[in-house]
Amino acid sequence: MMTNYPHTTRNNQWVCEAIRKIESDFQRSADTHLIKLDLRYFKDIDIYLKDESTHPTGSLKHRLARSLFLYGLCNGWINEDTTIIESSSGSTAISEAYFARLLGLRFIAVVPQSTASRKIDQIRFYGGEAHFVERSDQIYAESRRLAKALNGHYMDQFTYAERATDWRSNNNIANSIFEQMKFERFPEPSWIVMSPGTGGNLATIGRFIRYRCHNTQLMAVDPQNSVFHEYYRTGDTSLTLDCGSKIEGIGRPRVEPSFIPGVIDRMETIADCDSVGTIHWLETVIGRKAGASTGTNLFGALKLAEDMQANGEKGSIVTLLCDGGDRYLDTYYNLDWVKNNIGDISQTINHLMRYQG
Ligand SMILES: *Cc1c(COP(=O)(O)O)cnc(C)c1O
């Protein structure tokens, strides 16, 4: 099939200006912090959180949205009259709305009816629109239909996340982690831990580790109600689930193309009560709230630290603080909601408390 992009000419002035706007937004931005946790229980193991909540749009999806826009612009998929469409009700839509507004483009997030109004408000805050569908499995087909009808561009984060990020280069998250670790007592992490949503960050970090021949292993942590772990074990791409993950941003009901099993050294499923318990405990350590996927990551990192300590190993472990907790005051930080939707988190909190002592 031939596809024509009638509005696209190479080095079109608008496209150059759009790229310059995104690059200057990047130039004005500071790198995100790498926080070292003060956990006296682990004598010879240091644990770090790469704090992605400090991006202008509040999550690690700021990096992804920037990359997807640059990828679309340089591919000739986005021009001055292109409507941007994405199937996301979460952080990706919020960050993409921000960049669409920066470029003066219309942005439509295709979201299930059940999406929390707080999130729709955030998408609208950046000038984005919400287009509702009844069920969550309808968002992909409806996004494609809308893109065709409006002569727009469907960003499709779950397909393009892994390839839109330049995994070899200077300004990706993996390079930043290794640079920031340089003066630590264990500068080369023994492990990096990350949970897949698109799988884009795992791909970037895993490829970078291999490319630079680092002696670092990559652990993926999956929440309950996700097919990624089972797919990692079996290679079965046809796996699906009826219900979605309760840990926002991670876990998928179908195998997504951006999830690349070959970059991962080890994978584990973390119980939702452990993920949510961990962010409540983390608040007692750093005095700040984080989203639940940070709990999944950190619980996995702490498990590794326990194993390393038991084996007499020394070293460092790095994981990600993916977004802040302000978005989740009604859910993960509402104890009634937690009791009804996640279960008992007190055992996890009690278990983790000994790490500070
Ligand atoms: C997207 C997301 C992740 C997972 O990152 P990917 O690179 O998409 O795998 C984790 N946590 C949150 C809050 C996210 O929005």
TrEMBL record:
Pfam families per the UniProt record, alphabetical: PALP
Keyword check for ATP-binding: no
Role played: A cysteine desulfhydrase that generates hydrogen sulfide, H(2)S. The H(2)S produced by this enzyme may modulate central metabolism. A cysteine desulfhydrase that generates hydrogen sulfide, H(2)S. The H(2)S produced by this enzyme stimulates respiration in M.tuberculosis, mediated primarily via cytochrome bd with a lesser contribution from cytochrome bc1/aa3. H(2)S modulates the balance between respiration and glycolysis, and also contributes to redox homeostasis. Probably eliminates toxic levels of Cys (which can induce oxidative stress).
Pathway(s) of this molecule: Amino-acid biosynthesis; L-cysteine biosynthesis; L-cysteine from L-serine: step 2/2
A single GO BP: L-cysteine catabolic process to pyruvate
Name of the protein in its database record: L-cysteine desulfhydrase Cds1
Catalytic reaction equation(s): O-acetyl-L-serine + hydrogen sulfide = L-cysteine + acetate; L-cysteine + H2O = hydrogen sulfide + pyruvate + NH4(+) + H(+)
Entry keyword set: Cytoplasm, Lyase, Pyridoxal phosphate
E.C. numbers: 4.4.1.1
PANTHER family in the cross-refs: CYSTATHIONINE BETA-SYNTHASE
Naturally occurring in which organism (per UniProt): Veronia pacifica
Localization: Cytoplasm
Gene Ontology CC terms: cytoplasm
Segments forming domain Tryptophan synthase beta chain-like PALP: 32-323
Cofactor: pyridoxal 5'-phosphate
